[in-house]
Design brief:
This protein is of the alpha/beta class. The chain has 19 helices and 10 strands. 47% of the residues are buried.
Length: 407
């Protein structure tokens, strides 16, 4: 789902996914006038005249788009042009992982009481990205009331309900978005993420495998599929996806780890009864966290002696707010020990212990960043690429982590 795609996925710390729901669960960007396509390539077209907006959007040149929309805002006296420019500016900031700037630049439109569904949808998505789930839901409902048949709004409502752990409501809204003809890749990925959260892994495979075989399996969809294949013990299908990029020993290790994975909500919110925890507004994979189990068809790895929960953590002691990168969560510290020994890049990461609902949790976090965007940018470093490929790291607020530790 566009919202989930930006981040809601079940594989959580293991696959690059809930940043899994597509808007995520996973979601593709809403196709409103305020949304632009994202890509990794850069393009510029400045020759003394306004750059070609469509080329910049296709190239994903967010910096140039931001400059373009700000220039339009400065030079226009037309209310509609100003409205559209602010909307596009806010969307571009959200695409770069900076929801705070989105909220700042659309604030004048909200103060003027524009009651337009595309504005309220963007506002809700930005609120969700900053963790204000209840306000995001209230705003999304207002958008729905203005445009009841808009599939992007329905999808976003599904993302929010999944985030809150209301999986029945999430599935209802995803199916409404599907009936409204939102693209299949987004909807099937989000529904598959719900299947994974409800431990219906065969259903998830049945939804995602056709997307993968038809060439629609982007990174998040592929990660969710890989996780579901591991949980159903389908190693032959699993290894075809990684046949060219991994050695056999690496594939076996990853398969074993994913088979032993469990889910853990990235929020400190307690889920409702009979519900599994929900994931962030990114990918379904980011919901999944590893735990020990005897279900793996492969021999267990040699485990080191358990370690005691760390007494002090530099990240928790850092002044102010900020964000850190959470690589994985597990019920046993030795799983994180194994990961740190396997990947030298994680040697200076910290293990933080807390309890939730009577269960022990150990999370592996690294770095202290001023903003969510800065933390996500850090994941683009070359030395992290192999890790990002197998795990589902996400930017976690340090204040939220402190609350989890304090209980």
């Amino acid at each position: 789902m566009a919202d989930f795609r930006h981040r809601f996925s079940v594989a959580g710390a293991l696959l690059l996914l809930l940043a899994g729901l597509l808007q995520g669960c996973a979601t593709s960007p809403s196709d409103t006038s305020g949304q632009v396509k994202t890509a990794n390539k850069q393009s510029s077209n400045k020759i003394g005249r306004e750059p070609d907006e469509s080329l910049l959007q296709t190239a994903g040149n967010h910096a140039a788009l931001i400059e373009l929309y700000k220039t339009r805002l400065q030079n226009t006296k037309d209310a509609e042009t100003a409205y559209e420019s602010r909307l596009k500016l806010g969307q571009t900031y959200l695409d770069t992982g900076d929801p705070e700037s989105t909220l700042f630049y659309i604030a004048p439109l909200l103060k003027k009481n524009y009651q337009r569904p595309e504005l309220l949808l963007l506002h809700s998505r930005a609120l969700l990205a900053t963790g204000e789930v209840d306000r995001a839901l209230a705003t999304a409902i207002k958008a729905r009331d203005l445009d009841p048949t808009n599939p992007r709004i329905s999808n976003h409502l599904g993302v929010i309900h999944a985030r809150k752990g209301n999986y029945s409501s999430a599935r209802h809204y995803f199916n409404r978005a599907r009936a409204g003809l939102l693209d299949d890749a987004t909807i099937k990925n989000n529904l598959a993420m719900l299947d994974i959260l409800e431990e219906n892994y065969d259903a998830a495979v049945n939804r995602l495998m056709p997307l993968y075989k038809s060439g629609q399996g982007d990174e998040k969809i592929t990660s969710n599929l890989v996780f579901a294949l591991a949980k159903t013990g389908r190693y032959n299908d699993f290894k075809t996806i990684y046949s060219e990029t991994n050695s056999e020993s690496e594939r076996v290790e990853l398969f074993r780890v994913l088979t032993a994975a469990t889910t853990e909500t990235p929020e400190a919110r307690k889920p409702e009864k009979h519900q599994l925890p929900a994931a962030p507004d990114y990918d379904l994979a980011s919901l999944v966290r590893k735990k020990e189990t005897s279900s793996s068809p492969f021999p267990p790895a040699v485990n080191p002696a358990p370690i005691n929960p760390p007494v002090e953590n530099h990240i928790l002691d850092a002044p102010g707010g900020g964000f850190t990168i959470q690589w994985m969560a597990a019920n046993k510290p030795r799983i994180l020990d194994q990961l740190q020994r396997r990947y030298p890049e994680l040697r200076n990461a910290e293990q933080i212990f807390f309890q939730r609902d009577g269960r022990d949790w150990y999370v592996l976090v690294q770095g202290n960043y001023a903003s969510q965007r800065e933390a996500l940018d850090a994941l683009k470093k070359p030395e992290y690429q192999s890790l990002v490929k197998y795990l589902t790291p996400w930017a976690r607020s340090i204040s939220g982590l402190r609350k989890a530790v304090k209980g």
